Amino acid sequence: MATTVLHKADTRGHADHGWLNAYHSFSFASWYNPERVQFGALRVLNDDTIAAGMGFGTHPHDNMEIITIPLEGDLAHKDSMGNESTIKTGDVQVMSAGTGIQHSEFNPNADLRTKLFQIWLFPKTRNVAPRYQQITLDTTEQKNNFAQILSPNPDDAGVWIHQDAWFYLADFSAEFSKKYELKKEGNGLYVFVISGTITVDDQVLETRDGLGITDFKTLDITAITDAKFLLMEIPMGY
């Protein structure tokens, strides 16, 4: 019998700094909820809106796998490994912070906001050499499909990280249904709805709701309306 934990959109932490409007699915910065620290290896799921021309100054990370998924607008990236790039809607970026990295991120546009998800996973191996990767997705693959965007394997579709995790983006038409099959025994799945309404087995999820599921092998995911969502299969122990 599957075990679930439901995180409704309006139960998330929220911080409005003016230049940054952030919602936290898990404890982050000044928002702390002892029941919402992590889901397995998934430590951070931030839903950020960055004002035009604003961003995060140079700051450090270590021993974390950091995934950025732009939803609207662009994000300029610069890091201590010498990488300088701009990620756009439809791209995915990953940094393995490992032994330590410093980076900055800002919205390069003077008149457009940037919306993105930033996701942190604990790695399965500590103190790896830092690395950076970004790719542009074929978003047509997401239509009525689970399109893989991340895995542990450099030769697979999407970016790769130092963790036994698989991420998928999906864009379902209303009433479309598809079965999700667990990739690795003992993993859990965190479903996050970007827009629209879906059901995961019998649980209804609306825009920006999250659902963590463990102790399952397959799940039926059905779109009630046109819907976009993110699936994150991650280890529950790490």
TrEMBL record:
Residues 11-121 form the Pirin N-terminal domain. Residues 149-234 form the Quercetin 2,3-dioxygenase C-terminal cupin domain. It comes from the Bacteria. This is Pirin family protein. PANTHER family: QUERCETIN 2,3-DIOXYGENASE. Pfam families: Pirin (PF02678), Pirin_C_2 (PF17954). Belongs to the pirin family. Transmembrane segments: none annotated. It comes from Flavobacterium taihuense. CDD domains: cupin_Yhhw_N.
